[in-house]
Amino acid sequence: MYTQGLDQAGNDKQSGVETAEQLAAFQKRVDAEEKIEAKDWMPEAYRRTLIRQISQHAHSEIIGMQPEGNWLTRAPSLKRKAILLAKVQDEAGHGLYLYSAAETLGVSRDQMVADLLSGKAKYSSIFNYPTLTWADIGAIGWLVDGAAIMNQIPLCRCSYGPYARAMVRVCKEESFHQRQGFDIMLTLCRGTAAQKAMAQDALNRWWWPSLMMFGPNDTESKHSAQSMAWKIKRFSNDELRQKFVDVTVQQAEFLGIRVPDDELSFDPESGHYTFGEIDWQEFIDVVAGNGPCNKQRLEKRQYAHNEGEWVRAAAQAYASKQAARAAA
Amino acid sequence: MSADQTLIAYTLRLADNALILAQRMIELVAAEPELEEELANANFALDYIGQARMLYSHAGELEGNGRSEDEFAFMRDEHEFRNLLLLEQPNGHFGDALVRQFLFEAFYLHLLEALIACSDQGLSEIAARAIKEVKYHNRHSAQWLVRLGDGTEFSRERVQASLDNAWRYTGEMFTGDDIDVAFQRDFDGPNLNAIRDLWKRDVERTVTEATLRLPDEQWMVSGGKQGQHSEHFGFLLAEMQYLQRSFPSATW
Amino acid sequence: MSKQEWPLYEVFIRSKAGLSHRHAGSLHAADDQMALSNARDTYTRRSEGVSLWVVRSDRIVASDPTETSAFFEPAEDKIYRHPTFYEIPEGVENL
To answer: Over 60: is that where the pLDDT of C1 sits?
Structure first.
């Protein structure tokens, strides 16, 4: 699962037909922790926010298959190959669950896929970084899935029922993802000097992009307050980021590799780590499409989609013929 | 060749088939025509990786020199692999990969059925597990072949060409060599002639349902079972074995 | 070539014999058999089930949320339908 504070690019139109009474009644339901279901009345902006967030989340799963898929054919043991394949398969499954959840809000998968392929829809910026060594597979599991888990566990309690239910399934299935990543890192760190160097290099490259996954700082985050009020979001970007840093730094120490942040230090007073400033320009650039792999990721998806068109059409033609034969 | 050597060689052929097909299938990850098909392809590839691991481990135990599954998979050279040529062929488009899967599994299903009855307990147990997986794959592939064959005009022509192109690799499945003969004799192994008839019957049935035609009798290519591979194969191995070869002493 | 998307199906899984089928999620498939395959490959990867139902989503007849109160609230005051409504005197057993 790879959501991030992808709450940029919002252009929610407030529809004029929503009365103050409707909005208040809706908010009351949300405040009472009632789940909102697909056919219930909901503010248009709530629907749009969810469609945007869930579809971006789904797209992230689908694009996320690529950087890890990049090492499937080269995995260094049959056991690792099987584990990685099961993980990448889960990502396909999670994309599927999430598209389904978004479909309950009245948008088709076709439309969402079209938005992804045209570049209109966003996905998590982390997948626009390349996986250059086997250690990157470890780092993705450990850091990227670790960061994702921080985000996704609260989403299991999201006010929108279909999203919350999809997330429960996702979280349950993903519980092995971070562990397998850490296990790869641990094996490398206990291995040869070259392997340990590989692990350190991966941490160097994935650390900051992982912190960016939590999205902009709270002061910059446009939609956070509304999403919190609607109980789509339960914790702020900065709260989750801090939690991630606190647990991950200790894991890095256990591995014996160094987090690439000179300003990192433990503050005994607050019980938290303080850390350096994220390069937000890099974040903005990658989200804008200028990361190392944006073009490549999208092109691969477009290619697969186009190459599959005749197959989807054939299956449909067959189904129509079968239906006609059954009717005759 | 002693009976033990026959058994090891035969087991390794099966293992190589499973691994090489799995390797080709995982090249298809993130390239399937629809999301649901990603899940299916990954499931089937996982089944094959699982089979390869069991078979290599069994071969390693029979050999008794402590060779691990990974040593078989990653530290042998091209000529030591004994998989069918059909399975190492590049994926092509969805129809090509599907036809490869379908033609092989229509054979493999009957082979496994026969292997359950063989006298080597280890192989028999592995076959009993694998056959459940392959039965399901076969159902899936056969249905897809019918969808493509009886789909659009375009898809029919395309998958007919896939069938025509793959056909010349099917002879190798049934061409018994010394190892096949010895395995049948010494271990109550499969009778390839009998399997050919069953295969032909099953393939013909699905092909007909798919409104396709069986390719004509033609010259068949072989060599994979003896370690003579196609040019593609070296690249497949180079990619698959790269890390193990670059860091020979490392554990992963 | 038609560019319409494959229809949506709902998936129901019986997790073990003795339990009823429960809704697990949705998926797309071109036909019923494909829906069954896709359900198997998507929703039973971790031994979640022993039996599957799939049904096209557009074939499901559902109650309307705007009628929720008319449909379901009248049952709420019929508390005498529940055993806890009745007081059992001390000393009476097996009731």
So the answer is: no
Domain ranges of chain B: 3-246
DSSP output for A83-142: HHHHHHHHHHHHHHHHHHHHHTTT--HHHHHHHHHTT-S---GGGGS---SHHHHHHIII
Give the separation between CA A233 and CA A218, rounded to whole angstroms.
13
| CATH architecture label of B3-246 | Up-down Bundle (1.20)
Domain ranges of chain C: 8-60
Query: How far is the alpha carbon of B124 from chain A, nearest alpha carbon, in Å?
Result: 22
* Among the four given CATH numbers 3.40.50.1460, 3.10.20.520, 3.40.50.720, 3.40.50.300, the one describing domain C8-60: 3.10.20.520
Residues 6+ apart with CB under 8 A from B133: B44, B47, B50, B51
ipTM comes to 0.97
| Interchain contact B230–C (C-beta under 8 A) | no
pTM for this model (two decimals): 0.95
Cβ of B217 under 8 Å from any chain C Cβ? no
Q: What is the pLDDT of residues B139-183, one digit of tens each?
A: 999 999 999 999 999 999 999 999 999 999 999 999 999 999 999
> Element (H or E) spanning A74, and its range?
none
What percent of chain B is predicted at pLDDT more than 70?
Answer: 100
Please report which confidence band the pLDDT of residue A174 belongs to, taking 50, 70 and 90 as the band edges.
confident
% helix / strand / coil in chain A, to the nearest 5?
Answer: 65, 0, 30
Give the pLDDT score at A225: 87
Chains meeting A at 3+ CB pairs closer than 8 A? B, C
Q: What's the rounded Cα separation, in Å, for the pair C43 and B147?
A: 23
Give the burial string for C16-25 (b: 16+ CB within 10 Å, else e): eeeeeeeebb
Model confidence at A16, pLDDT cuts 50, 70, 90, reads low
pLDDT tens per residue across span C8-18: 999 999 999 99
